[in-house]
Task: structure prediction
Amino acid sequence: MDEAFRIAERIRSVIERLRIKNKNEDVVKFTVSLGIAQYDGSETFDELVKRADDALYKAKGRGRNRICKADKN
Result:
């Protein structure tokens, strides 16, 4: 889970630095929120995705442009 978080943070950081410019002025800035979950060995694929999705919405609810880890079952 720690490695997944580090990878997600690198992705978030790269996206945050992306810009679309017009005459050297930022026109569009990008952000991304991510939810990550670790397979516990017993859940279905749909359950795993649901936990990651719940973590994504938690990240958005906490102000966006961030990463949240899924709660453990």
Notes: Strands lie at 19-22, 25-29, 34-36, 67-69. The chain is about 45% helix and 20% strand.
